[in-house]
Each structure stands twice: as structure tokens, then as C-alpha cells.
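Researcher: Please predict.
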Amino acid sequence: MNTHESQYDENLKKKRKLTSPAWEHFKRMKVGGVMKARCDHCHKHLGAESKNGTRHLLDHIVVCPMIKQRDTRQMLLKANSSSDGKCASLDTYHFNPEVSRYELGRMIVLHEYPMSIVEHEGFRRYSNSLQPLFKVPSRNTIRADILKMFEAEKQKLQRVLEGNSSRVAITTDMWTASNQKRGYMAITAHFIDESWVLQDRIMIPHDAENLGDALMECLLDWNIERKLLTLTLDNCSKNDAMVNVMLNKLDKSLLLVNGKILHMRCSYLEFDSKRGFGESFWKWC
């Protein structure tokens, strides 16, 4: 490499401090009168004009054949806070994109954000400012991630219900989504755990096209049809018909008093799930 190619732009460096972690692996120099960034490991030249930014440099660090990604991660430090909230120590931080994707999906469920948030330009810019190495997933990808989380949490809750000796009381609530003009039914299970603490979990929301079949399918899916205690429903004729469907499908010998007290009527049911699906979804995390 000639002297002209290796000439550093010292004046530019003085004017603007290079703060991106990419510059730990690149040097700025003029090549043929054009500002370039040379990789310290493979010596490849990439654009280094201010308009280019540093995203392409960070992407190169990941795929550079002469450097491994873990070397980049070891540059990062994580602050451990003490009980008073102050920084107590610094440890090496290893970035794991899978953990970040999991936490992103958890955040969407917990706060009931729309899945389209991952496609918002502002959210992507914010994520990039926190960790440039994290690639924000698409809406379809985060949806698939959330469904996998749900199945994992469902299996955990099923094991809890199977090992719990108490019966399960069911409450339902129905509503119509104004933007879709579709009816839905949410099903919540209430039970007392081994520590005598009352627990409640949303099983899953269902389309209201066939309420009785949907409710029975949910009970069978969660393996709690043999542990059923009561069905608490608001007072309407549609619910009466649904209970009759359930009684015809259930084994009455497994119900209290052969199912005579299965239907618990309630003139006003303050459905607990209105505080949010996400909160109940993550209680077992």
C-alpha cells in the first residue's frame, strides 16, 4: 500500500469524534482521494463518508472471515446495579440475539402492543441505537416467536394443573371487536394452588361462532374436563344454551351433584381478563 493510500484524515478525526464500536475494527484513510474504512483484520476497504454511516461496517464485523463475532461482544460491558440503584461493578456482556428476540416478543404480549410495532421506523431506529448488531424481526417472524412462547407457557401451566389436586372453576366473557365486527369468547380458569393461593389464568380467546363446542374444545385441550367445578357466566339465553351443550358433552358422573350446580349465574360479571391478556400470559414465566 502506497503512502497516499495510508494517509489518515487527521483533521476530520479532530472535528468529529468516532464513537461507534465499529471503529475498534476499522481505520479511516483516503484511497484515491475518497474516504475509506479499512478493516483491521481482512484489510477490506468500505465506504467511510459521513453519509455512509456505520451500519455496513458493523455488518461486516459479523461476517468478516478474519474475526469472530464473540470478539465484538467482548468489547461490551454490562453495569451491575447495587441495592441503592448505583453502578456497583462492570462485567463482560455477551450479546445474544435470541434472548433479545424473546424479550421483544414478551414485551409485545405483556403490554399488548401491535405486532406491527417491529415494522415502525422509529422502533427500528431506537433498537439500532441500543444494539446495532440486533436485527429486528419482521411481523410474521415475531408472531411465530410469540406462538412458540405461548405453547411453552401452556405446557408449563398444564403440568401445574395436572399436579394440582383442586378442581377448576371456569368463567367466560364475550364481546364483539368493533374494528372486525367479530364475536369472541375468552375463557379463564380459577383454581387454588398447593399453597392455598387463588390463581386465575386465561386459557385462550375463541371465536364465538359455536360457543359450546369452543368451550369444550378448550377444556379438552387443557385436560381439565375431569376437574371442572363450575361455569360462571353472565345471565343471557345464549349462555343457557351453551351450558346445555356442555352438559351433553361432559361425563356427569365426574361433576359435582351430577352437574346440577355446574352453571353459576351472575347478573354482572366483572371479567378479570380485561386487565390484559399479557399479564395473565406471563404469570408463570
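Model: The two ends are 57 Å apart (CA to CA).
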